[in-house]
Structure of GTP cyclohydrolase II:
Amino acid sequence: MAHLRPLSILCRSQLPRTVFRSKGAIRHHASIAEQRPSIQVSTRIPRSAHPKPLLQQSSSQSLPHVNCVVRARIPTISGGEMFLHLYENSMDKKEHLAIVFGDSIRSKSLDQQLDKESEMDRMIRGAYKGTLYPGRHTSDMLEDTILGDGLPPLYEDAESAPLVRIHSECYTGETAWSARCDCGEQLDEAANLMSNSEKGGIIIYLRQEGRGIGLAEKLKAYNLQDLGSDTVEANLLLNHPADGRNYDVATAMLADLGQKDIRLLTNNPEKVRAIEGPNREIVVQERVPMVPLAWKTQGGIKSVEVERYLKTKVDKMSHMLTTPIMNHLKL
Ligand SMILES: Nc1nc2c(ncn2[C@@H]2O[C@H](COP(=O)(O)OP(=O)(O)OP(=O)(O)O)[C@@H](O)[C@H]2O)c(=O)[nH]1
């Protein structure tokens, strides 16, 4: 089996004194060593307390079909590794991803034996056990382990269930150093928590840029925000829903990865409800809050824009966050 070292991973803030230029100023991202230990708060979800839907809902009574096309090992810049799974699905043409920490979580669709498939074919698409090396010529997957029993793994308690984060694509926050949102920070934080957890974890990376409205429309929304609208108003002014996302593909991907009971990293009550799927294919046993780093450490993203963004999530999208810093900022 591939050997997974515990790692503290992938933090923009962890890169050695990474410096970004912004409006002529130099912004230092503090290294992880400079940050105070993170506060880990967990919130059990009583069945009766599941939030009512607020935003866009799935109209479908069944999940879309998903198929893991390929899986590959990704050694990371901090020394650990994860397995990137690329999926196709029957709902859209996008390549949604599952970032899997730990080598015990496997995709049923990937592990299936395909018609006339050679052992080399299997290894090339990532359907192998253990580690690839030059000269290896078998996938080491016996017939009975390829298909499995089709049942999700059983966990004795919620703590045993893996951590899951459902992330939506954000080019500006993940790649273009934007301080309008905390999306990049949340991605890093989720990876950190999962890579340091014995149970591993899964980040479902959905290609739903701009809460589903796409990058061009999100950039228009940014201009509207600079003209005085908040994030929800800007979407509505552009004739989009406040949140146009759909989580059915994510639910189907989690089921394909053998999951049933999960611990979900989020503050968004709509996500908790939606990820369970039309027939509770997935059950959120526990919600693990994502507290912005700037609210609990010296690090994290600091800007008037990100505080406004978070305030709107709390005020208009029912996010389960208390807002310690906002009172001190002139928003
Ligand atoms: N339309 C729009 N989308 C934005 C804006 N800022 C960030 N986003 C998008 O919001 C999405 C990120 O939301 P998530 O990180 O999943 O957050 P969430 O669902 O609100 O809740 P959490 O799980 O608690 O983080 C990404 O698709 C971003 O591109 C904005 O100003 N306008």
About this structure: The radius of gyration is 20 Å. The chain has a mean pLDDT of 81.
